[in-house]
Amino acid sequence: MYQNQVYILVDKYAIPTRQRYTVMHELGHFLLGHLGTEPLSRSEHDCKPYEEQAADKFAIDMLAPACVLWGLHLHTPEQIAQVCHISMQAAVFRAKRMKLLCDRNKFLSHPLERQVFSQFSAFIKSQQKNNYF
Known about the structure:
This protein has 133 residues and is an all-alpha fold. Helices cover 61% and strands 0% of the residues.
């Protein structure tokens, strides 16, 4: 934060998947209240481990929503990376989590998850219709 404004700086030379993840991760810090009120932004080293984990979870939940991946029947990191335009590292992480979520089979049990799924329903149907996966 600088002069009561929040900025997210991104390395313009980073690959687009890294840029997208970085923006969403940093937006997570902002929305989750990790920034505090100091005039200058904190570095990653100033964040507590749970704050970093929470920002990572926020980023992956926004870029690769589990209920949408479930609706598309995407399970492999390669499929997830391709559809969600995320790095292979992030896709591997998401694929592992999807395995756990699929084993529990509790998709669409929360009202917000149903809302997200509904908002993506046209996209899911178009992907299934075109047999992309």
